[in-house]
Amino acid sequence: MRLRADIPTAAAMPASDEAAALRREVAELRRALAERDAFLAGVAHELRNPMTPILGQVERLLGAAEREAPESRVAQGLAQLRWLVERYVRRATTLLDVSRVQAGQLALLASPVPLAEVVEEVVASLSPMAAHVGSAIAVSVPDDLVLSCERLALDQILDNLVTNAIKYGDGSAITVSAVREAGAARIRVSDRGIGIPEADQARIFERFERAVGASDGAPAGFGVGLWLVRRLAEAMGGGVALDSRPGEGATFTVTLPLHA
After folding, report:
1. What Pfam families does the annotation carry (predicted)?
2. What number of other Cβ atoms are within 10 A of residue 104's Cβ?
3. CATH 1.10.287.130 domain span(s) along the chain
4. Residue 115 and residue 155: Cα distance in Å, rounded?
5. What pLDDT digit, counting tens, does each position of 5-38 carry?
6. Beta-bridge mates of residue 243
7. Which residues make up the CATH 3.30.565.10 domain(s) of the chain?
8. What is the CATH number of domain 111-212+221-257?
9. Could you give the percent of the chain with pLDDT greater than 70?
10. Longest dimension (CA), the chain
11. Residue 241 CA to chain centroid, in angstroms?
12. Quick one: fold of 16-103?
């Protein structure tokens, strides 16, 4: 096949022109990513903001129902509705946090945080979701573990990890545990589900990546949860690691500093 003489090929292009073309492509990609992050931030605000008055109304109705008949079907239904709205808000907040992390606008302020207390809150909020798929969540966290971190960031980390264990645990038992080790706390979230192939274990901590696709029958998601876990843990002086084999489940270990 003959090439037209007036169209330069990559081989014929001078090195300086090729470098300039690459720089332009990189700049265009960065602009596209910035526009996508700005779009996500706008979508997150639009999705989350209307839920605040709705959640307030649900809580008001639930409070009235629980005073009159705590065990009634109305009270139980409103409790479930509150959980669904709260989960919706958390998903929108995840998108907003992603855009803030990318823009360098997510400021984390460390303070003393009782780990067991936050774990209890997260597990209680996700118990209906776990029960729906047949999973039980066991907790083994010492009461004396006090972290130096931001409470909301810790909540986000635990929420993402436990939610993942529920999604991909295949109805198996889930364990949330923690130990003290050399001035830090090691927090483990384990399941006995489908596991993650070794080839995917580094990739899943990147943005918009998922080890299991929707075509595999797994629940759909944004693919940002584990990326956000890693970024939040690192921003608070810690990290996250994964131990998993296909068919044998997964254990995510988050390390965070203890309060001195």
Report:
1. HATPase_c (PF02518), HisKA (PF00512)
2. 7
3. 16-103
4. 10
5. 454 555 555 777 788 888 888 888 777 766 766 6
6. 251
7. 111-212+221-257
8. 3.30.565.10
9. 75
10. 86
11. 14
12. Helix Hairpins (1.10.287)
